[in-house]
Specification:
- The protein is of the alpha/beta class.
- About 35% of the residues lie in helices and about 15% in strands.
- Strands 1, 5, 6, 7, 8, 9, 10, 11 and 12 form a nine-stranded mixed sheet that branches. The chain has a three-stranded antiparallel sheet with strand order 2-4-3.
- Strand 3 (about 50) and strand 4 (about 55-60) form a beta hairpin.
- Helix 2 (about 65-70) packs across helix 9, helix 5 packs antiparallel against helix 6 (about 185-205) and helix 8 runs parallel beside helix 9 (about 255-280).
Length: about 375
């Protein structure tokens, strides 16, 4: 069922591993004795992992990602992070979302990218988030973003089909939340935002009916979110940026079981999504970025692992130059960062690479500086 159109615009799918994914048990240094010294309890069996080099191996639950690695479609970015790491979920994620480690950012990097891709806001579906709420990465004033909980039932006032009734409902919202003097401000906001949301909902609701595929996605949230991404992508609605997340990867306790389950779901969903892209002839049009706000401590806590730094990220796609990027942080005591993996490449290098080489966007105003790019995509 390959696509007949060879002129598709490139799309980026961002998958956030919320909670702080444990790098040591994701890309495991399976021949490093220090790993077994520090991980007395929360450690992987080296006989069950998926080796990707003489020194590193994927978690046993990452079989579908290993399959794509073997095809040369997976770039593993080791030691990714930023200067002066912050172990707060909220602050660290805020840094990743705004690309501003030293200041409090007000604009999301993907929202700014959306504005560059659609400067006049002509398509309210240039960026779509699958999940509740709107990630700060997509938040920029004046940039419309559709946020979808369930694609099958998506829509603001989905049971109100008549346009007059929709406007009446928006008016009721303004009266409830705007009060007397604030009514006009609420209506100004709702007037455009509400209209954009309604327009986006109308269009998005058409996507599932157009979708045909032999791929059977699992019945977990991340698999269903990536299925929704595929449905919208294949419906040719002009969406360039997709965002979704899965978790929680905050594995302070019971890690071996919960982390294995999480990666089984994520890796399986990525494998199915990639197979769906391939079936529709779209694998070269999509890049997938997988990241988490930080890694975990080198030493386990007896049942899990606590907040750390020096994480790992992945870029996956048909045009990706698969391989290892960035040096894997050393576990040697004198090279640790206060018991953490020491980051060795700034996450904004990855952002700059995607913005420039994938979208053809000048990355400097978005990532707030000039950063060396990685060769994981063609220049």
């Amino acid at each position: 069922m390959a696509s007949q159109n060879g002129n598709h615009k490139k799309a980026l799918v961002v998958l956030q591993l919320s909670g702080g994914n444990d790098t040591l048990n994701t890309v495991m240094p399976y021949n490093d004795g220090l790993y077994f010294d520090y991980r007395q309890t929360v450690r992987l069996d080296p006989d069950k992992v998926h080796p990707i080099s003489e020194d590193l191996a994927f978690n046993p639950s990452m079989g579908p990602v290993k399959r794509l690695w073997d095809e040369g479609k997976v770039a593993v970015i080791n030691g990714i992070g930023y200067p002066n790491p912050n172990r707060s979920h909220f602050r660290s994620m805020d840094i990743w979302h705004t690309a501003m480690p030293d200041d409090i950012g007000t604009e999301g990097w993907l929202g700014l990218a959306t504005r560059e891709l659609d400067p006049h806001g002509e398509n309210v579906l240039t960026a779509v988030n699958f999940g509740r709420g709107l990630p700060r990465a997509l938040g920029v004033r004046g940039v419309p973003v559709a946020s979808v909980g369930n694609l099958e039932t998506y829509g603001l006032f989905p049971d109100v089909q008549d346009e007059f009734m929709r406007k009446y409902a928006l008016e009721a919202f303004a009266k409830m939340y705007g009060g007397g003097q604030g009514r006009d401000q609420v209506m100004d906001f709702l007037g455009q935002t509400g209209t954009d949301a309604l327009k986006g909902a109308d269009i998005l609701r058409t996507a599932p009916a157009q979708y045909q595929s032999s791929i059977e996605y699992a019945a977990n949230p991340i698999a269903q979110s990536l299925k929704s991404v595929a449905q919208v992508l294949f419906a040719e609605l002009g969406t360039r940026i997709f965002y979704t997340q899965h978790g929680s990867f905050d594995t302070h306790s019971g890690e071996l079981i919960s982390h294995a389950k999480l990666w089984d779901e994520v890796a399986g969903a990525i494998g199915d999504f990639y197979d769906d892209l391939r079936e529709h002839g779209r694998e070269d049009d999509v890049a997938i970025l997988v990241f988490s706000e930080f890694g975990r401590r080198i030493k386990d806590n007896g049942s899990g692992s606590d907040h750390g730094s020096g994480g790992s990220a992945f870029v996956i796609g048909g045009q990706v130059n698969g391989g290892l990027y960035g040096e894997y942080p050393s576990l040697a005591p004198d090279l640790q960062l206060e018991g953490d993996l020491h980051f060795n490449n700034d996450f904004r290098m990855t952002y700059a690479t995607l913005l420039d080489r994938w979208f053809g966007i000048d990355p400097e105003p978005i990532v707030n500086g000039r950063f060396e790019q990685l060769d994981l995509l063609p220049a």
